[in-house]
UniProtKB/TrEMBL annotation, chain A:
GO terms for biological process: L-leucine biosynthetic process. Pathway: Amino-acid biosynthesis; L-leucine biosynthesis; L-leucine from 3-methyl-2-oxobutanoate: step 2/4. [4Fe-4S] cluster binds at C349, C409, C412. It comes from Thalassorhabdomicrobium marinisediminis. InterPro entries: 3-IsopropMal_deHydase_lsu (IPR004430), Acnase/IPM_dHydase_lsu_aba_1/3 (IPR015931), Acoase/IPM_deHydtase_lsu_aba (IPR001030), Aconitase_4Fe-4S_BS (IPR018136), Aconitase_4Fe-4S_dom (IPR036008), IPM_dehydratase_rel_enz (IPR050067), IPMI_cat (IPR033941). This is 3-isopropylmalate dehydratase large subunit. Binds 1 [4Fe-4S] cluster per subunit. Coiled coil: none annotated.
UniProtKB/TrEMBL annotation, chain B:
Catalyzes the isomerization between 2-isopropylmalate and 3-isopropylmalate, via the formation of 2-isopropylmaleate. One of its GO terms (cellular component) is 3-isopropylmalate dehydratase complex. Keywords: Amino-acid biosynthesis, Branched-chain amino acid biosynthesis, Leucine biosynthesis, Lyase. Belongs to the LeuD family. LeuD type 1 subfamily. It catalyses: (2R,3S)-3-isopropylmalate = (2S)-2-isopropylmalate. Pathway: Amino-acid biosynthesis; L-leucine biosynthesis; L-leucine from 3-methyl-2-oxobutanoate: step 2/4. The keyword Nuclease does not apply. The lineage of its organism: Bacteria, Pseudomonadati, Pseudomonadota, Alphaproteobacteria, Rhodobacterales. This is 3-isopropylmalate dehydratase small subunit. Pfam families: Aconitase_C (PF00694). Residues 1-123 form the Aconitase A/isopropylmalate dehydratase small subunit swivel domain. One of its GO terms (molecular function) is 3-isopropylmalate dehydratase activity.
Amino acid sequence: MSPKTLYDKIWDAHVAHEADDGTCLLYIDRHLVHEVTSPQAFEGLRMAGRTVRAPDKTIGVPDHNVPTTLDRANAETMTEDSRIQVEALDKNAKDFGIHYYPVSDVRQGIVHIVGPEQGWTLPGMTVVCGDSHTATHGAFGALAHGIGTSEVEHVLATQTLIQKKSKNMKVEITGHLKPGVTAKDITMSVIGETGTAGGTGYVIEYCGTAIQDLSMEGRMTVCNMAIEGGARAGLIAPDEKTFAYCKGRPHAPKGEDWDKAVEYWKTLYSDDDAHWDKVVTIRGDDIAPSVTWGTSPEDVLPIDAVVPDPASFAGGKVDAAKRALDYMGLTAGQKLTDIEIDTVFIGSCTNGRIEDLRAAAEILKGKKVKDGMRAMVVPGSGLVRAQAEEEGLADIFKEAGFEWRMAGCSMCLAMNPDQLSEGERCASTSNRNFEGRQGYKGRTHLVSPGMAAAAAITGKLTDVREMM
Amino acid sequence: MEKFDKLSGIAAPMPLVNIDTDMIIPKVFLKTIKRSGLGVNLFDEMRYDRQGNEIPEFVLNQPAYREASILVAGDNFGCGSSREHAPWAIADFGIRCVISTSFADIFYNNCFKNGILPIVLPEAERDALMEDAEKGANARIEVDLEAQTVTSSDGEVYHFEIDSFKKHCLMNGLDDIGLTLEKAAAIDTFEEKHATERPWV
Ligand code: SF4
């Protein structure tokens, strides 16, 4: 047998039909849906008189729109149009009989956090969702990618996706991370290196000792931002840590099925002599705590750097950098650690898991948020929230002056009232720093949870290593 | 879905790189549960000020480009989220073709589901068409999907590559789901085998 990559193996195990030109029907094991990209798809099914082919493989949870304030049980906290979307999902879930976690359920949360938490996401699976950060699930060695609404409808109706195979890219992070450097810094550094289009046409497999060192939470953070690097999906080969994370989750296999599954999962790795279309190697020891300065995730630098001069770029990027500095209100040559911020957001599917909250709380312990700053923690799911309360993290946040919110996407994309106002500057643990992403004319600096906590204390972008 | 074969129209130049889906259709417009009516909000934050007045400098607000049916864009167009609202807004505005050096993967796929042709050309050719587009309403660009060519206003012809299956569906306005359901037997067979081999799925 010719050597295969992990991607090749998962792909081959899911081709339900292949046409002469290589167009495949890829069978989908898990389909996650949320309220923003699914209403038109369910409506399409209804109009064509179709049903959901595999409702038991379809999981719904509202997350993008839902308020994260403590009084959200009161439907009036939602704007009319948000409420319509959430109610549409409630109804569609019921009508089509899919698994569902409504807003009132403690297991509700960001779809990419709920999936793994409930054991829906398992190694070797194909996972799709009408959301680009579906890449997150690749941390389990599952082939996971975002799809558009027409494709959501296609998967609902057929449990397959029309796909052509992507190319294989290996991103190896060698060595070990230094203290204060996290999975977020790895994934941002990779994008800084390859650019936001560097992964276009590829599925990335992250490997190397620094990746193996990471917890499952950290691996999810890395894969989450594969999409910011343009890749169709990110993957990490499953290992003992993966199996340990999955074991005992509500929808993970049990008994004999578990043993059979693990036996299979152990075959899911890239063969030594497998072919790679592109290889990127980064020394883990060289990665520093990172921060974005511009309006594209590729605008990333180590925290001890200065704001770059647009003239130092080439091609269309020169104008884009000029526009970014203007938008961000920064000047070339300014030290990143001199940039003052007024908001801190800890949350999102990138950094809204328990380990992220632990890392932030570690820095915040016994400290206070700088006067006049707005700081909020939005746990990724109701269960993360409950666990953080149990571990005493919630108290640390509250005592420091953070708002302690309910689960949802919140200020990651600001579809609910959690928004930046014009000109406000935020240190955010989310994944996108696009213009207007966190609110009209809001300014976003992407950072790790520890860096966000450090910034909350000083009121400036801060090197977390100085606070450890 | 609307068929696409030939298109002759005005092309609007948008040289900015990394035009993301948040720029194409800001999230406040994602709260709809319909597919239609998003054209007025295409590029909303670039196109209107906070009071809802048009920003005259923005390309699609200029008289020459109000009727544009083609966009010539900077690298990596459509990066960001999976929102199909982006191509819905583009199509609703009346744009049927976007030309760039590269597109984000999900956006690229989404275009085909909505009768929009995304064309990838090498940088030099895209730049030449960008210059052509900058001439305004007098410069019409022609696109021929069958022949896989783009012709500039001065008759320069550029060939582009496209996946044969995607081309076929776009030219015939075919519904993917209908096509896939014709292969239901293959899906059934696969599903059975998959369930036996991997019962935990
Ligand atoms: S947290 Fe942000 S990136 Fe993640 S699914 Fe929600 S909106 Fe998308």
